[in-house]
Design goal:
single chain, mainly alpha, 17 helices
Length: about 425
């Protein structure tokens, strides 16, 4: 278990380093305005992926141990093709409303956004399959391949080809997704054997039922995280959005802790039927995630403004303010990530949906009040309030179902013994 966490953590740490390299290259060479445009395009892709992930998303982690690979591939690939056709039609219709259209999708980026959505969907299928099979090492290698290819290609595009627009980031990501998808297929297809028939209709119903709650939750969760971007678009300049995007990327980089632990937890919980063990693992994972996330954020928050100006350039002098205001929410989010994986991994994603709806209500109220008033600072405060609300609701449900108390989030001797045992097993 600990070996998987460390392996995933190492992969995520490499991701943070490459993202920081990408962020520094982007802020220094592209400028705040182009960086803001790239962030808007990435937000568009995030929303488009939600429709695809109804069938071909993280729900595959839950179904992989329970369904045959051939069944999952037929349903997922068919769904990806169908949804992409719907998106293509939608984008063509939106051309008749150019002012609204280009306020959502940066002008000249539509085809690139659609292509990236398609390729990433294929890559994500591979990742979710290997995670569902508890092949965490394969998952991590594909993830590392993607991010290292991305940062290398961005350097080539900027310094060798002198591309100084938002497309430098998006093209580099497209290269990373494409290469990782091809390698993933190399691991995946040899395992695709001739299997007995499995009713596609019944499997589709199960996946839709499970995926509906999961993806509605993801949709609302994404709105919680990214709705502020579209509100900032109407109240701030692209340069200010670039500053907010950079602050968001720095703080969300700390989420590697919760994400790494959460992925291992999701994989383990999806493969166990023991409720007591599931709740015990969740508490231990949560304590570890909160402690490590808080420690990392404390270091970042103690850095002076001059440091950020030196790293990202003078255009980003307000980034420290964004980081400080978002930091409390990130700690809550690290705990929320573990609880969300607990509910999904035990087949109860509806509680994640309910939590996200509560978070969305907080987002809507706070964002519409604070962003016009405080700009990017209001967006950062909104994020912290939303993440806090997510955790409070999910903890209430977790407490009601398992009888766990807040006092159990304080590390005890048994937790340290568990960590020591896992480390010994790893060594």
């Amino acid at each position: 278990m600990f070996k998987k966490i460390l392996g995933t953590g190492a992969a995520r740490a490499i991701n943070v380093l490459t993202q920081m390299a990408t962020l520094i290259m982007g802020t220094k060479c592209l400028g705040a305005a182009e960086w803001g445009k790239a962030f808007i395009a990435q937000t568009d892709i995030t929303f488009l992926l939600i429709g695809i992930e109804l069938i071909a998303g993280s729900g595959l982690v839950y179904f992989t141990p329970r369904k045959k690979l051939a069944t999952l591939m037929k349903l997922s690939y068919g769904w990806i093709a169908f949804v992409m056709l719907v998106y293509l039609l939608l984008f063509n219709i939106l051309h008749f409303f150019p002012e609204f259209y280009h306020n959502i999708v940066p002008e000249g980026y539509a085809w690139l956004v659609l292509l990236m959505t398609f390729i990433y969907s294929l890559h994500e299928f591979n990742l979710n399959h290997f995670l569902g099979k508890e092949k965490v090492a394969t998952y991590n290698w594909l993830f590392i391949t993607q991010i290292l290819t991305q940062v290398t290609m961005m350097a080539v595009l900027i310094f060798a080809l002198n591309l100084r627009t938002a497309k430098a980031l998006l093209y580099s990501q497209l290269c990373g997704y494409s290469l990782a998808t091809l390698i993933g297929w190399g691991f995946l297809f040899p395992t695709l054997k001739r299997e007995g028939g499995e009713p596609l209709k019944d499997s589709l119903k199960e996946m839709l039922h499970y995926g509906a709650f999961l993806q509605l939750s993801t949709l609302v969760s994404t709105l919680n995280k990214r709705l502020s971007v579209y509100l900032l678009r109407t109240n701030c300049t692209e340069q200010q959005i670039g500053v907010y995007a950079s602050g968001t990327q720095v703080t969300e980089g700390v989420n590697i802790v919760g994400q790494s632990i959460g992925l291992v937890a999701f994989s383990a919980l999806s493969n166990t039927e023991n409720k007591q063990r599931a709740s015990q693992l969740t508490l231990r994972f949560m304590k570890l995630s909160i402690l490590l996330t808080f420690s990392a954020l404390l270091v970042i928050c103690l850095l002076p403004t001059s440091f950020f100006e030196w790293v990202f350039s003078g255009e980003f002098s307000n980034i420290r303010t964004v980081i400080l205001l978002m930091a409390p929410g990130i700690v809550f989010f690290s705990a929320h990530t573990i609880l969300a994986n607990y509910f999904s991994g035990t087949g109860r994603p509806k509680y994640n949906l309910y939590a996200s709806l509560i978070g969305l209500s907080v987002t809507l109220i706070a964002a519409f009040v604070l962003i016009p008033w405080l700009g990017i600072r209001g967006a950062a405060i909104t994020t912290s309030l939303t993440y806090s609300a997510l955790f409070v609701y999910q903890w209430f449900v977790f407490h009601k179902q398992t009888g766990s108390r807040l006092g159990q989030l304080v590390p005890n001797r048994e937790d340290w013994e568990w960590v020591r045992t896992e480390i010994k097993g790893f060594i």
